[in-house]
Amino acid sequence: MLAYLPPNLRDLQLPLRLRLWDGTQLDLGPQPRVTLVVKDPSLVAQLAHPSLDALGGAYVEGRVELEGPMSEVIRIGDALSQALEDESDTCQISRTPHDKDSDAAAISYHYDLSNDFYALWLDPQMVYSCAYFETGTEDLEQAQQAKMRHLCRKLRLQPGERLLDVGCGWGGLARYAAREFGAEVFGITLSRAQLKLARQRAKDEGLARQVRLELLDYRDLPQDGRFDKVVSVGMFEHVGHANLPLYCQRLFGAVKAGGLVMNHGITAKFTDGRPVGRGGGEFIGRYVFPEGELPHLATMTAHISEAGLEVVDVENLRLHYARTLEHWSARLEARLDQAAQLVPEQALRIWRLYLAGCAYGFARGWMSLHQILAIKPYEDGSHNLPWTRADLYR
């Protein structure tokens, strides 16, 4: 059966073992750390030029099995794809039209999977975004608390101020801002599962009067400048390139003059926003974040500026997100038996690849994570920000 394998596979020196459907094995290098079990004979031809999308899709669909640490699976899979990629292949840029119905469906697909499943591998507050490692030695819970504190400090949040949380998730940041900084928080989400749990947690913590959470599309935000501050975490990735101008305009209209707006989200490596190479971005779009699109930092800051906001600070947390994802992946891998009781087998396969793959991708600079702080100036162009960042770190 080895005769059916593409000849270029034999020239590789990777710690990978191939096991075919008839039990035949081939080691592609010494001391294999990962075994790729090919169950579908039709897959063999694809191994001549295996993209990450094709390899990942075959695993999700059960056409192959993977044996070994998931972090090694991702590393070796990328090396295999890179060594055998077809240089004539080009990554096609596609733009998806986003409307309220399609965005709601995409959000539901991703976030309504199972609250209990997410709780297995997120921190106790279920903060599903990049953590902040002040020293690099923090555990996940400490780093997520530090991230929320960092955001609130950047916003110079004060007791009694009205904070808009766009894409509030399970409400971890909303509750933190209310509890630790005394803010009055209005949060919005399109996920019914998130909203139900977030409301219950606010009630259980005695914060129901300070934290109001609603099922609302960002396009329907009030435009009367009623909020003192705005925070949006992990949100603009879902908006789509075509709607970024409208999204920024809605944030501008929601915040009062002199108010701060914080955008925290994943940004593309390439200025044209094309996904990462060798099929990784296509896999995420197909199985994880339908209709998700990553803007480059330059694109995002341009739209923020054109909406009338002034960018006053930018921080790259790419390596922070790599470490956050390493924590998430390790926590999921340690609880696979429990996870298998909560979500379908295919969903669990997707998430194993997604978390480990994104940890690898962020570590290698395939995409970044930027916090972009902007302000809505007064009519005369002035604002009341401190002259330096020193107050953030006291």
Automatic annotation (TrEMBL):
The UniProt entry, under Gene3D superfamilies, shows:
Vaccinia Virus protein VP39 (3.40.50.150)
Give the residues annotated as active site: C358
| InterPro entries listed in its UniProt record | CFA/CMAS, CfaB-like, CMAS, DUF7884, SAM-dependent_MTases_sf
Q: Does the keyword Transcription apply?
A: no
> What SUPFAM superfamilies is this protein classified in?
S-adenosyl-L-methionine-dependent methyltransferases (SSF53335)
One Gene Ontology biological process:
lipid biosynthetic process
According to the entry, every stretch annotated as the DUF7884 domain falls at 13-75
Keywords from the named record: Lipid metabolism, Methyltransferase, S-adenosyl-L-methionine, Transferase
Q: Does the keyword S-adenosyl-L-methionine apply?
A: yes
Stored Pfam families: CMAS, DUF7884
Give the GO molecular function terms. Answer: methyltransferase activity
Q: Which PANTHER family match?
A: CYCLOPROPANE-FATTY-ACYL-PHOSPHOLIPID SYNTHASE (PTHR43667:SF1)
Extract the NCBIfam families matched here. Answer: cyclopro_CfaB (NF040703)
According to its UniProt record, which protein family does this protein belong to?
A: Belongs to the CFA/CMAS family.
Query: What protein name is recorded for this chain?
Result: Fatty acid methyltransferase
What species is this protein from?
Pseudomonas taeanensis MS-3
User: Lineage, please?
Assistant: Bacteria, Pseudomonadati, Pseudomonadota, Gammaproteobacteria, Pseudomonadales
